[in-house]
Design a protein that fits this description.
CATH superfamily of the largest domain: Ribosomal protein L10, N-terminal RNA-binding domain
Distance between the termini: 92 Å
Number of helices: 7
Radius of gyration: 26 Å
CATH topology of the largest domain: Alpha-Beta Plaits
Strand content: 15-25%
Helix content: 40-55%
Shape: elongated
Structural class: alpha+beta
Number of strands: 5
Largest sheet: 5 strands, antiparallel
CATH architecture of the largest domain: 2-Layer Sandwich
């Protein structure tokens, strides 16, 4: 591969990494062509982009990206594939599902919304993470709960407060 081709790949990969909120580095070595194809189809169905790349090119792309990922560099050994998505838990669930019938992919590391997770033992933790939208939904739900109770109390009182306000207004006249 010529230097110009490598630079193009690095630039494309850097752009993908900069635009992604989540990416997982995995080891899919020793998967045969059929199993790799099955994994690619599963990734496609879950809206996860699977990219197999040389570690040297990936390291250069990570260095050029706008993410703080120096802790990922030691994991760049043996063949590496990247799962890129905007959904933080989907790749972890996908890996778990695929490993029911295969021994790989193994999780090397993951970058999830500015947090770095290293090692295959982090898979369960990654599966249980809540997305930013889920957390916002929970906070909104918690904030709405007291307001809804007040409104419900006011409505269940047969508009007593409204009646009192009307009576007071009539008295002043």
């Amino acid at each position: 591969m010529r230097k110009e081709e490598k630079n193009v790949i690095i630039e494309q990969l850097t752009e993908k990494l900069n635009n992604a909120t989540t990416f997982y580095l995995t080891d899919i070595s020793n998967l045969n062509a059929k199993d790799t194809g099955d994994l690619r189809r599963l990734c496609y169905s879950k809206e996860v982009e699977l990219v197999v790349v040389k570690n040297t090119l990936l390291k250069k792309a990570l260095e050029r990206s706008n993410k703080q990922v120096a802790t990922l560099y030691p994991t760049l050994n043996y063949p590496t594939s990247i799962m890129i998505t905007d959904q933080s838990t989907t790749p972890a669930k996908l890996i778990k599902e695929f490993r029911k019938t295969h021994e790989k992919p193994l999780l090397k590391a993951a970058y999830v919304q500015e947090s770095v997770f290293v090692g295959d033992n982090q898979l369960e933790t990654l599966m249980s993470l809540k997305s930013k939208n889920e957390l916002i939904g929970e906070v909104i739900g918690l904030l709405q709960s007291p307001i809804q109770r007040v409104i419900s109390s006011l409505q269940s009182g047969g508009n007593t407060i409204a009646g009192l306000v009307k009576a007071l207004a009539e008295r002043e006249q």
